Amino acid sequence: MHPLKKIVQMQKKGIPAGLYSACSANELVLEACMERAMKDSGYVLIEATANQVNQYGGYTGMKPSDFMRFVLSIAEKVKFPADKIILGGDHLGPLTWKGMPSEKALEEAKELIRQFVLAGFTKIHIDTSMHLGDDDKTKKLETSIIAERGAILAKTAEKAYEELAASNPDAVHPVYVIGSEVPVPGGSQGEEEQLQVTSPDDLRETVDLFREAFRLNGLESAWDNVAAVVVQPGVEFGDDSIHEYDRDAAKALCEELKNYPNLVFEGHSTDYQTAEALKAMVEDGIAILKVGPALTFALREALFALNHIENELLKGKSGTELSNFIEVLDEVMVRNPENWIKHYHGDTEKLRLARKYSFSDRCRYYLPLPEVRHALDRLMRNLKTVDIPLSLISQYMPVQYDRIRAGLLGKEPESLAKDRVVNCIDKYLYAVKP
Q1: Where are the alpha helices (DSSP H) in 267-384?
Q2: CA 67 to CA 48: how far, in whole Å?
Q3: Which residue among 131, 145, 174, 196 is least enclosed by CB atoms within 10 Å?
Q4: Is 41 left (phi over 0), alpha (psi -120 to 50) or beta?
Q5: Are the beta carbons of 286 and 233 closer than 8 angstroms?
Q6: Within 10 A of 131 (CB to CB), how many other CB atoms are there?
């Protein structure tokens, strides 16, 4: 049985179990996720979004099969068992091609979802919630149209699984997630936005219309593999604001979930929620907790701290070239603004701060670029040439200082950076473990 189906079963028995989903393509982040999971012999759920990984490479340059091999290479490096990895595809649908006419956009989306399934991704979020090129954008997109398009993509996924199973009888059948949160991925576009918790009526409409669309497309058996619905439970974040989970505001929605014996909720943009809020979400049936920017935000904090330590220890030292990691990262972002310019707003000073410190963490798009990667490699090499004093670790990474003192962590720079990511992961593990 797919691990997500087991989570559903436990939830319906009143056991508040869940899974967190790491939405990242950063190698250090994924190493941290796997190394932490090994301590509990647990699964790790890793997801790629449609704009990040697709049939044209996405912004990572990886197709679904490439991403699968990338994740498995990390697992081999850290000796994490491959059978404990769940790969997910997030927001799979026509989002990347929404400017095209619907017929063409759906053809692209069908190829996208086909490649994800054939590559062995077993958690498939079908998202057809966006207007396409020939839709009337002055009107709300009808849920019946969203559902019909979703069923078309589900049929493609089922055919792809049949093709995969023919060559690999041990292939795991994918589970499906339907629905989409508002706003779209990436964090709030404005600090003033008021979040609307999904209403029970909207949940009923979504489930009923998707179930009927599946039936009309001959997908009754596929409906048995729909395990979750994405809803907006009232969580989001902006550049420097966090919409905290309010379980009272989500109470009616979560009560309605009890009418669906085979479904749990999936919550997106759960980044930066407190550990107790995350636990409350799982207890309320939001059993799949998606996290992305918070992981690379934690990594960025660690890398900045290590850069400050490097400067303190090595600045002015003969024969040493400093990494200047913080400066290099910002210079590259300024020269290549396409991944942040639509997300950050304000005057020059606000933009400067947002580029470095925004909760939306658009920095993550720039970490793989050669110039930034070169600075990061130099930072790590430089710090490996010295014994980092505990006093400096206490100054810049106090949580890691305590863990070193307790004998739980070494002082190697990569270990320090990954452990800062683990601080974030631990909040999710606290929440999802019954």
Answers
A1: 275-283, 293-314, 325-335, 348-357, 370-384
A2: 8
A3: 196
A4: left
A5: yes
A6: 17
d(CA 379, CA 387): 14
2-34 burial, b at 16+ Cβ within 10 Å, e below that, comes to: bbbeebbebbbeeebbbbbbbbbbbebbbbbbb
Per-residue pLDDT tens over the stretch 243-295: 999 999 999 999 999 999 999 999 999 999 999 999 999 999 999 999 999 99
- Angle, CA of 354, 302 and 282, to the nearest 5°: 80
Whole-angstrom CA distances from 352 to 3, 175, 300 are 43, 42, 15
Cα 259 to Cα 208: distance, rounded to the nearest angstrom = 12
| 3-291 fold | TIM Barrel (3.20.20)
Please check whether residue 163 is in contact with residue 119, taking contact to mean a CB–CB distance below 8 angstroms.
Answer: no
Tokens coding 6: 């087991």
What digits encode the pLDDT tens for the residues 80-115? Answer: 999 999 999 999 999 999 999 999 999 999 999 999
Q: Reduced to 3 states, what is the DSSP secondary structure of residue 140? A: coil
pTM here is: 0.96
As a whole number of angstroms, the distance between CA 86 and CA 44 comes to: 6
Could you give the dihedral angle defined by the CA atoms of residues 161, 164, 170 and 176, in that order, rounded to the nearest 10 degrees? -20
Give dist(CA 348, CA 126) in Å, integer: 39
* Chain centre to alpha carbon of residue 64: 15
Is-same-fold flag (3-291; 297-432)? no
In the chain, domain spans = 3-291, 297-432
In whole angstroms, give the CA distance from residue 217 to residue 169: 25
The structure tokens listed for 404 are 């070193």
| Among 94, 115, 92, CA closest to 105 | 94
CATH code that applies to domain 297-432: 1.10.400.20
